[in-house]
Design goal:
It is a single chain. This protein is of the alpha+beta class. The protein contains 27 helices and 29 strands. Strands 3, 4, 5, 6, 7, 9, 10 and 11 form an eight-stranded mixed β-sheet that branches. A five-stranded antiparallel β-sheet has the order 12-16-15-14-13. A five-stranded parallel β-sheet has the order 18-20-23-17-24, sandwiched between helices.
Length: 754
C-alpha cells in the first residue's frame, strides 16, 4: 500500500498525519507535528514529494471523536491494568512498535477524556544493575507509558524503527473506539498530566489579550520543534545562543493556549542561576530580558492584572516596576501560596458516553464489529434483531423496541442503520421493513398491510409477525405529529404495547396486525432543537417508549467495511428465553433506588432489552449478567433523557427558558455539582443567533433575576460571561420555567405598548 493510501486510512480514523524521514523518527516537514494534517490534498502532496517516507500519527484533542494514543514503553501494559481494576480489556485498534514490540492503543476522545491532555507515566526507581544510568550512579526512572493526545506523535505501521530495522505492525485491525472512563481515571492516577507538570514548574494562566506570536517576535526566537504544549526554541532567549549539549526541547516555552511557562535545562543559564526566591521561569525570563542591556520593554500583556499590593508582593515583584510594565503585573507564580493560586477547576462529568458494560453477549460483540459509534450500533442492532424473529419475548415481556439515533449531521446515524440492517441481508428470516414516510395514523395502518375488518374476521392478533418501521430521518414524521388532530403518535403508542392497530378510510375501518419495532435517526444540533422537534404532540407517551442512541461529534467511517463485508450476514437463531425471580428482583431494586426518574418505563425497557439480548445469545434464562447490562443501558438512557427532553412549554418564553437551562444543566462535575459555562461558546454552539438571539439573551437575564441561573465572575478574564445553574430541585425548576415564561410574556407585552 502506498504512503498516501496508508495516510488516508489513518486520517479516516481521526488521526493527524505527517511524513517521517525514512529509517528515523525525525519529521520531514519544517514544523513537524504542527504540520500534521488530515487534509487529503495535503497528504497527496507529501506522498508525491516523499513516497518512501515513514508515517507518523498524532492527536489534536479538539473535539469528541479525535484520536489519542496510549503508548507503553515497558510492561505491565493495559491488560494488566484491566485485571488489576476488575475491568474488561478495551477492544480497540492496537499497533506494535518496531523496537520493543510493545503496544500502542489507539482510542477516540470522549467528553470525559478531552479534559486530560497529554500524560506521562514513569516506572518506579530503576534497580537494574545493567542499566547504563545506574552504572553512572544516578537515581532515575524510565518512561512507563504516555498518553499522546495533543501535538505528540508516534510512528505508525508500516514505518521502520530506526534502532532495530523492524517495522511497526498492526496487532488488532479495527477502528479506534472511545476510551473508557475507567481507563482515563487510571491514566491520571498512574501518571502526571502535562498541565499539572507545567503548573508545578510555574506555568500560569495568561491574560485574554496575550499574543504568543508577538511575544516570540519580541524575544527574537523561533520555534523549531513542538512536543505537546512544549515549544522548543532555536536559541536560549537569555543567553542569545543555543547551549552546548541541549536537545530539541532543552530550551522551551510551555504554551497550551491558556497558560505559559519557560524552562532552560542548561544549569549555567541565568534563567536558573539568577532566579529570585518564588520567581517562576517565565517571570525570571521577562525580568532578565527587560534589563537595560537587553531588549526594550515589552509593550504587550501576558498575565491578568492584579489589584492588590499583597498579590504583587507574593510574586517578588516591586510595585513600582509592575506599575510601569503591564506585562509584569502578575509574573509566573512558582511556589506561590495556595490562597493566591487559581482554584482547581472541577473535573467535568463525562456526559453521554456509551458505557461498554451495557453490552451483552452476541449482540454486544456484533455491535463492536460494526465499527460504528457504540452509542448508535448497539441500540440499532437491538431494533433490527427484535424485528427479525418472532417469539423473542415472554408472556409478560414484549420484545419490540422503538430506537431513535440522535446526533448532528455526519455523526454516523444513517451509516450505522445501514450496517445494522446489513447483518441479516440474504438470510432468512429477513426482517419485514417498512420504509414508507409515515405521515398519518391511517397511513401507518395501511403501510402495515391493514385490511377491512370483514376480511380479517377470525385471524386475530396471534398471527402478527415482526416488522421494522425504518425511518432514516424522522424529522418529517415528527413534523406530521405536530399537526393538530394527528393520530400518528397515538397509533405508535398502541403498537408499542399491542399487536394490532386500526384506522378509518373512505371504504370503512381497517386493521393491521404486527409486532412493530421502529428504527430511525433524528438530526439535531442539541437539546434545544430536540425540544422543538420532539414537541408536545409526542409527549403523550411516545417519548418514554423510545431508546435513544447518542454519539457526539462526527464519525469517520472506513468504506472498506461495506466493500469487503467485514461482518458476514449470519443466522443466529435465538433461544426461547424466560425470566427467573432474580431478574425481576434486580429490576425492582433498581427502580426503587430512584422511582421518579426510573419509573418512566425505563425498567420495562430494561426487561425488553434483557429478553432480546439473552435470546440472541442463546440463553434460556435471563441471568444476572444480562440483566445488569440491560439496567446499565437504562442508566445511560436516564442520563440522555436528563438533557434531551421534549418541550413542555406552550409559549415562546417557556421554550427560550428551556433552551438556556438545558444548556446550563448539562455542565456538571463528576459529583453532580453544576459548573460555569461560557455564554459565548454556548451561544455559538447552539446557533442561538438563528433563533432571535436578542430574545434568548433577554430570557437569560430573566432567569438570572429569578435566581435560577447564576452569573459567575472570571477573575482572569473579567469581560468573559460565565453562568451556572442554581441547585434547584426538579419541582423548583418546573415552577421557575413557568415564572420565566410569564415574565417574558409580560415584558414583551409592555414593550409592544411603548
Amino acid at each position: 500500500m502506498s504512503w498516501y493510501e496508508e495516510a488516508k486510512k489513518y486520517a479516516a480514523m481521526g488521526a493527524w498525519v505527517f511524513p517521517i524521514r525514512p529509517g528515523t523518527k525525525a519529521p520531514l516537514t519544517d514544523r513537524g507535528v504542527k504540520d500534521a494534517s488530515n487534509d487529503l490534498p495535503q497528504l497527496r502532496g507529501w506522498a508525491d514529494s516523499w513516497p518512501d517516507a515513514g508515517i507518523a500519527i498524532a492527536g489534536r484533542d479538539l473535539e469528541v471523536g479525535d484520536i489519542l494514543i496510549l503508548e507503553f514503553d515497558q510492561k505491565p501494559t493495559l491488560s494488566s491494568w484491566a485485571r488489576e481494576l476488575g475491568q474488561p480489556t478495551p477492544h480497540t485498534r492496537i499497533h506494535l512498535s518496531g523496537g520493543k514490540r510493545l503496544p500502542h492503543f489507539l482510542f477516540r476522545q470522549t467528553e470525559y477524556s478531552l479534559r486530560v491532555g497529554n500524560v506521562n507515566g514513569e516506572s518506579p526507581y530503576c534497580e537494574d544493575a545493567a542499566c547504563p544510568d545506574n552504572r553512572k550512579g544516578g537515581l532515575h526512572r524510565h518512561e512507563w507509558f504516555s498518553l499522546r493526545a495533543r501535538n505528540k506523535y508516534v510512528l505508525a505501521p508500516p514505518s521502520i524503527h530506526p534502532d532495530t530495522g523492524n517495522p511497526y505492525t498492526v496487532f488488532n485491525d479495527m477502528d479506534p473506539q472511545p476510551i473508557p472512563d475507567w481507563l482515563v481515571d487510571a491514566i491520571i492516577a498512574k501518571g502526571t498530566t502535562e498541565k499539572q507538570a507545567a503548573k508545578n514548574a510555574g506555568a500560569y494562566p495568561v491574560s485574554a489579550n496575550f499574543d504568543f506570536d508577538r511575544l516570540l517576535a519580541w524575544m527574537r526566537v523561533s520555534v523549531t520543534t513542538v512536543s505537546g504544549a512544549y515549544h522548543g526554541l532555536d536559541i536560549c532567549p537569555v543567553a542569545g545562543y543555543k547551549h552546548t549539549g541541549s536537545g530539541e526541547l532543552g530550551c522551551a516555552i510551555y504554551w497550551d493556549d491558556e497558560s505559559i511557562g519557560f524552562k532552560c535545562h542548561a544549569a549555567e543559564c541565568p534563567s536558573n542561576t539568577e532566579r529570585k526566591g518564588k520567581e517562576g521561569g517565565m517571570g525570571c525570563l521577562m525580568r532578565l530580558l527587560q534589563a537595560p542591556d537587553k531588549l526594550r520593554r515589552y509593550e504587550g500583556e501576558i498575565w491578568p492584572e492584579r489589584e492588590t499590593a499583597a498579590d504583587l508582593a507574593s510574586f517578588g515583584v516591586e510595585i513600582e516596576e509592575a506599575e510601569k510594565n503591564p506585562c509584569m503585573k502578575a509574573p509566573d507564580p512558582a511556589g506561590v501560596s495556595k490562597e493566591n493560586q487559581p482554584a482547581e477547576k472541577p473535573a467535568p462529568k463525562a456526559w453521554g458516553v456509551f458505557p461498554e458494560d451495557a453490552l451483552y453477549g452476541y449482540l454486544g460483540d456484533l455491535a463492536r464489529r460494526l465499527e460504528c459509534p457504540l452509542g448508535y450500533a448497539y441500540p440499532a442492532l437491538l431494533a433490527v434483531y427484535a424485528s427479525r424473529w418472532s417469539g423473542l419475548g415472554t408472556r409478560t415481556v414484549r420484545s419490540n423496541l422503538y430506537v431513535l439515533l440522535l446526533g448532528e449531521t455526519s455523526a454516523g446515524k444513517t451509516r450505522t442503520q445501514n450496517r445494522a440492517l446489513a447483518t441479516c441481508v440474504n438470510h432468512d428470516p429477513l426482517p419485514r421493513v417498512v420504509d414508507n414516510a409515515l405521515g398519518s395514523g391511517e397511513g401507518l395502518v395501511q403501510a402495515l398491510g391493514g385490511k377491512p375488518d370483514k376480511e380479517i374476521a377470525g385471524v386475530g392478533r396471534f398471527g402478527a409477525l415482526p416488522v421494522l418501521l425504518h425511518q432514516d430521518e424522522t424529522r418529517e414524521m415528527f413534523g406530521k405529529m405536530a399537526i393538530d388532530g394527528s393520530s400518528l403518535p397515538y397509533k405508535l403508542n398502541r403498537l408499542y404495547d399491542h399487536d394490532d392497530v386500526g384506522g378509518s378510510t373512505k371504504k370503512g375501518n381497517i386493521t393491521a396486525f404486527a409486532k412493530a419495532s421502529l428504527l430511525g435517526g433524528l438530526t439535531v444540533e442539541g437539546p434545544a432543537e430536540f425540544a422543538e422537534i420532539f414537541g408536545r404532540a409526542t409527549v403523550t407517551g411516545l417519548y418514554v417508549r423510545h431508546i435513544f442512541g447518542y454519539h457526539s461529534g462526527p464519525w469517520r467511517f472506513d468504506d472498506r467495511w461495506e466493500e469487503f463485508e467485514r461482518v458476514k450476514p449470519e443466522i443466529k437463531e435465538p433461544a426461547q428465553v424466560k425470566f427467573g425471580e432474580r431478574a425481576f428482583d434486580m429490576k425492582e431494586e433498581w427502580e426503587a433506588a430512584s422511582p421518579k426518574e426510573r419509573g418512566q418505563r425505563l425498567s420495562q425497557l430494561a426487561l425488553r432489552v434483557a429478553a432480546i439480548t439473552a435470546a440472541a445469545n442463546g440463553d434460556t434464562e435471563v441471568g444476572e449478567a444480562c440483566m445488569r447490562a440491560a439496567l446499565r443501558l437504562m442508566e445511560w438512557q436516564q442520563e440522555i433523557r436528563s438533557i434531551y427532553k421534549p418541550s413542555r412549554a406552550d409559549s415562546m418564553g417557556g421554550r427560550y427558558s428551556e433552551m438556556v437551562m438545558n444548556e446550563a444543566w448539562r455542565h456538571q462535575d463528576i459529583e453532580g455539582n453544576f459548573l460555569p459555562f461560557s455564554w459565548r461558546e454556548a451561544y455559538r454552539r447552539n446557533s442561538w443567533y438563528t433563533k432571535d438571539g436578542n430574545q434568548v439573551q433577554k430570557q437569560r437575564d430573566i432567569l438570572v433575576g429569578l435566581g435560577m441561573l447564576v452569573k459567575v465572575e472570571d477573575p482572569e478574564r473579567p469581560k468573559r460571561l460565565l453562568f451556572r445553574a442554581a441547585n434547584w430541585s426538579k419541582e423548583q425548576r418546573a415552577r421557575g420555567i413557568e415564572q420565566a415564561a410569564e415574565l417574558y410574556t409580560a415584558t414583551s407585552t409592555d414593550t409592544s405598548h411603548k
